[in-house]
Structures are given as structure tokens and as C-alpha cells.
Amino acid sequence: MRHRDRLNGIQVILWTGLGVGAGLVAGFALSEWVGGVSRRRVQGVARRWREATPTRLTTSASASAVLTALQAEPRLAGIPVDALPVARGVVELRGWVPSRAARTVAGRTALAVPGIESVINSLLVRGEDDFPRTRDARATDQSA
């Protein structure tokens, strides 16, 4: 940076004052637009936020709740499915199921559990996902 491109002390003070003034004007305008802040108003916003936000289970509790729901589902009777916690409200289903329908039922059952927001369905279908891969399988070049 060349010497003449630098700001002198007066210019720094002027630009700083302009920035602070613009911030104050924006703050006053925003407070008029949003309205006054009171304890009752803050409590109302917090209450509405809590009511709108579903209760989230801890990771281990979410996996336990999903396992309980899967065991209670009659269409999944006798099928060992694991529910692994990934994060709050997120579980991963692992294991083998006899059909695509059972895979879908397990995923929907897990998603219906209160507090579960997302299900990673890694269930494999017997007869479809257990075929051996050949060594000679090669990718074909489909570039133009």
C-alpha cells in the first residue's frame, strides 16, 4: 500500500463516527419496527418456540424407542433389525429383511416414533442384496 493511499487520523475518526451513527440509526429503526421488549413478550416467544419444537430424544433413548417400536410391529416379527443412534433424532437401521416391503415397513415404523426426525435405512433385502460379485465386473466407458 502506498503512503498516500492511507487514511489520516481525522479520516479514521470520521469514518468510525459514520459507521457508529449508521449502526445506531439502524438499531433504532429496527426496534421501532419490531416493538418493545418486555418479560411477558420474551416468555411468549419462548413458549411458542418450545411448543413448535418437538421433544428430541437422546441418541441412546432414540435407538431404544425405535427398537421397541420395531419389535411391536407384527409385520416385522422375528426379523432381527438393529437401530443404531447417529445423532439426536437420527437412527440408522441395519440388518437383513426378507422383502422390500419389510424394509419399507421398518423405515416407516422408525420414522413414526416421536422424537425421530430422520432414519437412515441401511437394511438389506435377502435375495437382492446378497448376490456374489464377480471379479470380472468392469465399468464400461460411456463417455462421448
Q: Spell the H/E element sequence.
A: HHHEEHE
Number of helices: 4
Structural class: alpha+beta
- Uncertain spans, ≥5 residues at pLDDT below 50? none
Could you say how many structural domains there are in total? 2
| Rg over CA atoms | 29 Å
What is the name of the CATH architecture of the largest domain?
2-Layer Sandwich
- The CATH class of the largest domain turns out to be Alpha Beta
**Share of residues in strands:** 15-25%
Taken from the alpha-carbon principal axes, the silhouette is elongated
Overall average pLDDT: 83
Count of beta strands: 3
Essential attributes:
single chain; 144 residues; alpha+beta; Histidine-containing Protein, Chain: A; 2 domains; 3-stranded mixed beta sheet; elongated
Summarize the entry for a quick read.
Helices cover 46% and strands 16% of the residues.
Write the layout of secondary structure elements.
Layout: H1 9-34, H2 39-52, H3 59-72, E1 81-87, E2 90-97, H4 100-111, E3 118-125
Parallel strand pairs: 2-3
Antiparallel strand pairs: 1-2
